Amino acid sequence: MASTVGQVIKCRAAVAWEAGKPLVIEEVEVAPPQAMEVRMKILYTSLCHTDVYFWEAKGQTPVFPRIFGHEAGGIVESVGEGVTELAPGDHVLPIFTGECKECPHCKSEESNMCDLLRINTDRGVMIHDGKSRFSIKGKPVYHFLGTSTFCEYTVVHVGCVAKINPLAPLDKVCVISCGVSTGYGAAVNVAKPPKGSSVAVFGLGAVGLAAAEGARASGASRIIGVDVNPSTFEAAKKFGCTEFVNPLEHEKPVQEVIAGMTNGGVDRSVECTGNVNAMISAFECVHDGWGVAVLVGVPHKEAEFKTHPLNFLNERTLKGTFYGNYKPRSDIPSVVEKYMNKELELEKFITHSLPFSEINKAFDYMLKGESLRCIIHMDG
């Protein structure tokens, strides 16, 4: 890679030219990293529902042309001025949020909401100079979540890069960079179910299944999966779910159904759909006196959460979490080690695999609800 340092790299990228239209494989130019930036070669990336959501651009500001992708694994090609903890050849995961290590959030043991580098879905440029590092024939192509991993090379702020064990297989651990950590961390770091406890997980996509896995790892004995799509139930057993509830099959609100199953409510709940009614149900289904509900899903911008204040006064707790409360640089390497030590299984999250040239099929799989994670091999 030494010959490319300081040079513009020409490579393939899957470019979204407009909302909802198939991505087009184009030759793009990727500029060298500037101060506090890292240029990396992406070896594997996967499709997350967040990519699809912003590609459809139905409920947010459209920013096009854009290179999507934020769940990936790669190798550092070169580093910009001021980068001291990464070097060419390091194995890394790019992360859609960051850790500057200087702000009050980064210095807090409780927060991972970095002031400088927290997720920004509208920004399509690098924060150093307000410019894109991608271009086609001299015209900028915009970044997504500061990662843009649907490109053979990408440029990322150093604070959004987790250096990991070089022996970890990037085609597996790439899923740790978003969905698995978000769900798993929501359970183990935020809900913290006691051994022998009951947990309800709302939404059995990849994030919800990771939350179920986290509940099992914590020692929960009853894990109730809640989803309106019963085809998810069989697969969810592999992730620790012991029982299932389809809200559409009941006349009573699902929180009442769960309370009836659990002698007054579950000890913990984790909500992974973003549907505000599911959020309310997840809160109201926890037991009074000690129940804790954790919100993970991102709601519609106009959504309002309504519940009676007595639900709080009766000693139920409602928490929110972002990226499983993991700090990207400090904590994610240890999640990779959980996989390496066989404490966390990732293979069962990976349902499909495709060459980069067929990336649009990954969108089809997700839109049809057929995949949890589809790994895209960048050399294909």
TrEMBL record:
Belongs to the zinc-containing alcohol dehydrogenase family. Residues 206-337 form the Alcohol dehydrogenase-like C-terminal domain. Keywords: Cytoplasm, Metal-binding, NAD, Oxidoreductase, Zinc. Residues 36-164 form the Alcohol dehydrogenase-like N-terminal domain. This is Alcohol dehydrogenase 1. Coiled coil: none annotated. Its cofactor is Zn(2+).
